[in-house]
Amino acid sequence: MADQATAATAASPPAAATVASSDPPPAPPGGPPPRVTHQGRVAAPVASSNENADDLPEFEYFVAPGPRGFPSLAEFLDVLEVDTVKKPGESNRLQHRTDLFNTNLLVVRRGQEFQIKITFSRPYDATKDKFVVEFGIGPSPQFSKRTYMPVFITPEQQSAWPGRVLEAAGATVTIGVTPAADAIVGRYRLYVAVVTPYGIRRTKRDDSRDLYILYNPWAKDDAVFLDDEEERAECVLTESGVIYHGSWDDIAERNWNYGQFDYGVLDACLYIMDRAEMPIVNRGDPVKVARVASAMLNSRDDEGVLVGSWTGDYVYGVAPTSWTGSTDILLGYYRSRSPVRYAQCWVYAAVFNSFLRCLGIPARVVTNFYSAHDNDGNLKTDIILDENGRIDRKNTRDSIWNYHCWNECFMTRPDLPTGFGGWQCVDATPQETSDGLFRCGPASLRAIKHGEMCYPFDAAFVFAEVNSDVVFYSRQRDGTMAVVKVKKDHVGRMVLTKAPGSYDRRDITDLYKFPEGSVEERTVLEKAELYGCVRDKSSLPAADVELRLPTLEVAVGDDFQLALEVVNLSGEPRTLEAYVSGSVVYYTGVTSAEFLFKTPTVSLQGDQTVKEVWQVAARSYMRKLVEQANLHFIVTGKVKETGQIVTAMKVVALHTPKLSVQVSGLNKVNEEMTATVDFTNPFSFELEHIYIRMEGPGILSPVFKYYGLIPGGSRVTWAENFTPRRPGTTRMIATLDCAALRQVHGQVQLDVLP
């Protein structure tokens, strides 16, 4: 082994051993098409599986066999034991911040040294003994593709992964290995090879010596380096999160267990890349990993992790509102090799967040309130009115989601000009295709904020989600349309994420857009137009009549009052012919059923304000409710004297009953405790086919209980014993879900003592 290349060549298994056999004969007429293979295009299949791995041979000789065969290597140094220092609480896990992973194997981060202890058959003599520590990943590991990495211990032989002797005590040698800061991320096999003049003798394959190498946001040379300790702790190590929903002026919270350290989750995340047939050599690039995962988290075109459904019918799976965390979803996909049912945007975002954090890529879930889903590349959401000012539901096709959740991940962008790294938007919810697959991102937040729509990936789509204008058209009887009103501040009203180190909200709208009406915002919109984003530039006089719908806080099943204020800003009399519509809507803005329609005519004196009030009975909307209990009120009308169209919109997210969650016990590691869920049916009618789910990071794996019927006014109580596995602050999270009542959840925080 004169140099690194020679050693790599000698230690790599023969390429011919991995070449597939010849193709099968063509299928008979009418049968299935012949199998498509790599032959004739490449010498061997592209390595794209981390699960399927080839072993390195135990012996490799440098010399030809003599009359009595190969010479014996028994007289040379032999390896008796290899200790990867992998137990929880040992130095490797603590220094690499991987102590929370529930696995029997070593987990380390690239760009940082870790230790291996090797016990030989006799004391190691650096002057005459030579050995190599070898790491292989995927099938047919090769030095040229960086899937086979030999680590040399002697100073005269350098490695791509530096190695050194830290301590030699008798026959046991402790060495330090530093994976390159751009190393491939995944599960590696570990061998120790003793080098002799006649050949190499290496340890046999032992699964217990395998190790995982992850991204390292603490290493300055890593592409995901994040120079903020509080943010790193939140976006990589924190398991319990908060996802925001509801409406921008009545924000609701949903707790979620990301579970990135739970047993089996890391293997499930690696399997997702295997299922995508992502080449092993690309898995050290966070840009490529995030883009592949964006497509693989949904099942629309690649049998990915989650099946999306917004129908309200979830009889063949779990309702999106019922999930409490990502663990069941990821493990279910890994074990069944089939997509898991069902998901909506926050489920996609939460599971994607678990995937990114598990691999070591800093990530967070964000919620955009009033999110435009623009499928034609412009910056307009069109609402069609008839000539009298009433909304034309037949011809209005666009919708604005009350909220939409996606992810941000932190990484450099060497494929973009300097300055466009940092936080990147990625979205796994299947909305529109990008390069032929349902995916979105990573898109630089700086590019989005500054209107640089030319940079990959999908910046224009995200830009429209937060910057679109709501344009009202008046449709005449002959089919012609004219712009009558433009609302520029409705879409992208607020973007929220969980604050690091607390359960408070953090408003990050300024990362996506400049203040409405500012000089910077106008400049950005003009720049976006240069890249093909179409805006409406209608110049309309300001209306002298305003409509105002105040904020309402209403619980499911309550009667309430809808109040409309009509304000005359002029000194002249005005008459308004209005249309008031109340509809049950999905959170995506799609109308399910209309339950209220009024046509008041309001006469106002100069500078007068008139309030119109209507009683809304619970019976008018309860039987029409869909899963997230959103009511949408829209008021449109025409001012008789001026012909101007005026509008007002309001989303009311009905508040659901709370689920009481309590814990009792000593709050200590390995001491049994009890979690109790309590719920009372607040309605006069029965609830049927109810599922209650519960889990908590580090304290309770996901469990559920089924109830066939809860009569009106009745109470159910469920107690579950659990034993905390580790100390620290955590949360017990629970949900209750049935067809008649969604979005019922509760949680309790507890501090577990050592």
TrEMBL record:
Its EC number is 2.3.2.13. Residues 1-22 have a biased composition (Low complexity). Ca(2+) binds at residues 467, 469, 516, 521. InterPro entries: Ig-like_fold, Ig_E-set, Papain-like_cys_pep_sf, Transglutaminase, Transglutaminase-like, Transglutaminase-like_sf, Transglutaminase_animal, Transglutaminase_C. The active site is at 345, 404, 427. It catalyses: L-glutaminyl-[protein] + L-lysyl-[protein] = [protein]-L-lysyl-N(6)-5-L-glutamyl-[protein] + NH4(+). Its cofactor is Ca(2+). GO terms for biological process: blood coagulation, fibrin clot formation; nervous system development. Belongs to the transglutaminase superfamily. Transglutaminase family. This is protein-glutamine gamma-glutamyltransferase. The lineage of its organism: Eukaryota, Metazoa, Chordata, Craniata, Vertebrata.
